[in-house]
Write a structure and sequence with these properties.
The protein is an alpha/beta fold. 29% of the residues lie in helices and 22% in strands. The longest helix is centred in the middle third of the chain and has 21 residues, at 241-261.
Length: 477
């Protein structure tokens, strides 16, 4: 495959790499099949496997005779095709005549390392400007999936432009996503503030832990004009499509958690869930039944917070009148190398370390200064961090900024604090399961800087008429 961490092909006689792919399941609830496999229900898995749509991608996939413990990459695609929608839903979202083709609305690469029992998901922005086979000029990367190109051309485009090989492919379509949420009986999402998007039909009137039904969940992950209420006013998400990616990543973690809580380890419940969505999933033919059987046996205890969510570093550009994204170097290369397990000296792995794109931050206004959280979010995005939403803190009486973190993310919290002009107080918070880090701004927030350099921005504004006590306490979920 050309990835240094896996080395050369395995010696003759080794079976094809079959390391467990349980995290893949968390993305599209195909997880239920794999958990059933843990009970050695081979006949059941084979029956369900026979119901899945499969495509032959042998020409572009990087699979080969390699050791079972080698890392691997799985391309996860959310398609916006309307071909499976009911007449009622087609009236709301448009049918295949209104919205033809099968563009990739979401592109993520799942990197799994069985020996380290770790996984990471790299999100690829749909507006990334790349060279696509068959096109004279560069295009947005989501165009690669449209028309006759499909997954073949998208996989080739990712390999040639990003240097990331793909070993397997999974697609869930427009209706399948809603089926996942329906099968789970809804998915709870934490909103730090009321949120809305009229175009996506998103309407969250209050902050807190909200149980999203299939339609609102779809609106949440598709929203491109997301607004949240901060210090008494509606404010548009300053992170644009990057915010959308962060919401998708947050939702994926919650699906994993919800699937476990819903009882997918119970065969009867798992069967009901799988039956709801099996018609909406497409996989590559090389992902076989034996792979699924080995899957659950090897990765039974993966938790949502153990999954690293990474956004490919990019920066905006205007090319020929088109607003697009281009790779931000050298950060993009650093992230891709780390994702592939390559260190700068060419060794098998990178030493421990972090880059901003690997840290997702929720920003809360702790001062009552108008729009401070939104401005701080834009500061962090400019420095390369992911932003997982904005809103009001539990009080507007914070002075020094506070960085709250789940115990497993202490190093990330220290890393973020080093980027804050004037520093911040670190505070451990075990309730932060799906959000990696929370930054609570305060009157002492001065901006974001590159460690060792000058501040890149400062955000000061007059205090608004917002109530001084801040937002009410909000339960995590």
């Amino acid at each position: 495959m050309g990835r240094s961490q896996g080395g050369a092909a395995a010696s003759e006689g080794r079976s094809p790499r079959n390391w467990p792919r349980r995290l893949l399941i968390g993305v599209n609830l195909f997880l239920a099949v794999c958990i059933l496999a843990s009970a050695s229900a081979f006949a059941y898995v084979r029956w369900r496997y026979g119901q899945l749509d499969k495509i032959d991608l042998a020409e572009v996939l990087g699979i080969g005779e390699e050791a079972p413990g080698d890392p691997m990459n799985v391309l996860l695609v959310g398609s916006d095709t309307r071909s499976n929608l009911s007449e009622q839903d087609a009236g709301r979202f448009g049918d295949s005549t209104d919205v033809g083709g099968s563009r990739s609305d979401t592109m993520m690469v799942l990197h799994v390392d069985p020996e380290a029992e770790k996984a990471g998901i790299l999100s690829i922005p749909r507006d990334l400007w790349v060279q696509i086979d068959g096109f004279k000029n560069k295009q947005r990367i989501n165009i690669a999936y449209d028309g006759d190109g499909g997954p073949h051309r998208l996989i080739t485009t990712i390999r040639k432009n990003l240097g990331v090989d793909i070993d397997h492919f999974v697609q869930v379509d427009f209706d399948g996503f809603r089926g996942i949420v329906d099968a789970l009986g809804g998915v709870k999402v934490y909103f730090p503030a009321p949120a809305r998007d009229a175009l996506a039909e998103l309407d969250i009137p209050k902050a807190g832990c909200i149980d999203l039904d299939p339609d609102q969940a779809l609106a949440y992950v598709r929203s491109r004009h997301y607004q949240s209420k901060e210090s008494g006013k509606w404010r548009t998400d300053p992170t644009s499509d990057f915010g959308r990616i962060q919401r998708q990543q947050d939702f994926m973690r919650r699906v994993i958690s919800a699937a476990i809580k819903a009882g997918v380890r119970n065969p009867a419940k798992a069967n009901a869930m799988v039956g709801r969505i099996v018609d909406d999933i497409t996989i590559d033919k090389a992902l076989g039944v034996k792979d699924m059987l080995s899957l659950a046996r090897r990765f039974r205890n993966v938790t949502p917070e153990s999954v690293d969510m990474i956004t490919l570093p990019t920066e905006p550009a205007n090319i020929g009148g088109a607003e697009v994204l281009v790779l931000k170097e050298p950060e993009a290369k650093q992230v891709i190398d780390r994702f592939n397990g390559i260190d700068p000296e060419g060794g098998p792995r990178l030493p421990e370390g972090i880059v901003p794109a690997e840290v997702s931050v929720r920003v809360l206004n702790g001062s009552g200064i108008g729009g401070q959280a939104s401005k701080a979010a834009a500061d962090l995005q400019s420095a390369g961090f992911g932003v997982a939403g904005t809103g009001d803190a539990d009080s507007f009486r914070y002075e020094m900024p506070v960085v709250k973190y789940h115990p497993s993310r202490k190093i990330d919290a220290q890393f973020l604090a080093a980027y804050l002009e004037g520093g911040a107080k670190l505070e451990e918070d075990p309730s932060l399961v799906t959000a990696d880090i929370v930054l609570v701004t305060g009157t002492g927030y001065e901006g974001v800087r590159i460690p060792g350099g000058a501040a890149t921005t400062t955000t000061s504004a007059p205090v608004t008429d917002a109530k001084p006590e801040g937002a009410p306490p909000q339960p995590q979920c």
